[in-house]
Amino acid sequence: FASETPPETSGSAEEPQTSAAGDGGSQQPVSGEAKKSLKKKKNVKISMEAMIRGFQKFTEEDAEEEEEVPIGSQNVSAWHNVPHPEERLRFWSDPDTELNLAKNTGISVFRMGVDWSRIMPKEPTGALNEAVNFAALERYKWIIHRVRSYGMKVMLTLFHHSLPPWAG
Hints:
By secondary structure, the protein is an alpha+beta fold.
């Protein structure tokens, strides 16, 4: 789902940039001077099998024939090439897309989690009934029935580091 977009430039090269550690990435930001000197080496195919599989070999002689790579043409840069949540998190509103993919790949057990922020969006201060979102529970029940209608069993993850803000 990632699409190539150029990085946003917001200030000088000396300005600290945020890292991608929050989303599990470990890439460090590229400094201004390093961005200017990004170069791409030309490739040499090494054998017919390698050509079929897409393997490429880079040689030292190719270093002399380097070509410039425009800034922003890197395929994956976690800090500026993040897919939009509205494009990838549609399971709640349209589970059939994911369920079709799972069934077509031969999956027999479908793992799904519970978002406690949906079930209990407000802190229970009085009666528990007042804090529970029963519409969300009904939606989860409907989704579980959909999973079963595709011929799969449900593995329900009750806690996967998801707590409502009031519980954290």
